[in-house]
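Box S1 | Example of a co-folding query
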Amino acid sequence: MKTFLFLIILSVSLFSKVDINLSHTKIKNGTTFAVILQSDQFLSQAPNVIFKNKTYQMFTINGSTKKYRVFLPVDYYSKKQKENVQVRYLLNGKLNKNNFAIDIIDGNYKKNEIIKVAKGKVTLSNKEYKKVYSNVYSKITLYDLTLNSSFSDPMQSKITSAFGNARIYNGTTKSYHTGTDYRAKVGTNIYASNNGVVALVMDRFYLGKVVYIDHGRGAYSYYSHMSDFLVKKGQVVKKGEVIGKSGKTGRITGPHLHYAFRLYNITVDPLQ
Ligand SMILES: [Zn+2]
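Box S1 (continued) | Returned holo structure for zinc ion
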C-alpha cells in the first residue's frame, strides 16, 4: 500500500505542469512587462523572479495559488542588450529555476525637446534633494489596491509631450521626460487613474503640487503641477475620483498636467 501511494505521488509530480509566460520578449527601455506562472498544482510558496540582480515576489491572480503574476519595470537608462529573467518556484519540495532571455530594445524616444524655464528651476537645490522622497515609492504594499481594475486616463485632453523625450533645459541636456503631459488650463479636474490609497500630498521643486497614489504591489501613479489638492494622505480613492485641479506649480513652461508612474521605484511609461 505504501509503495502504491508513493507511486501515485511520484506520477503526479512527474506529470505536474507549470507554464511560464512573458508578456514580451523584446522590451523597450522605460516600459513594463509581465511574467505569468500557471501551475496545475497548488504552490505552497509564491514564486520569485530575478531580473537585473533584483528579486521580485510574484503575486496570486484572483487569490489562486495556481496562478501568479508580477509586472516588472525596465529602467529608461537600461543598456540595449540581452538580459536574463529567472523564475524560481517550489514544486513538490524541489526548487525549480527557469531562465528566459529577453532583449531590451531602444524605445526610439524623441531626442531633443527644448524647454525654457526660469533660471532657478534648472537644477534641484540641495535642500530639496535631502528630503527622502524615495521612501514613498520604496514601500511595497503587498495587496492589489486597484482591486483588479485597469488604468484609465487622468483627464481627457490633448497630449502635449510624450513620455521619454530627451530634454534640454535652457540649453543643457538634463534628463528625459518622466511622464505624459496633458494640456490643461488652471483649475481643470484631475482624476485618479485607478483605485488606491493616497501616499503623499506635497509641494515639490520640479513637480510643484503633487499627489501620489499607491496602487499596491509596487505601483504608484502621480499627478503634478496642481493648483489645488482635493485629497489627503492616507485617503482611499476610487478610479475616476477627482483628486485635484491642474495648475502651473513647480518647473513648468505653462499650465498642464504631468502624469507619471513608478513601479518598484523605477519610472515607466504611465500610458502603457
Ligand atoms: Zn511632463
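The mean pLDDT is 89. The longest strand covers residues 94-105.
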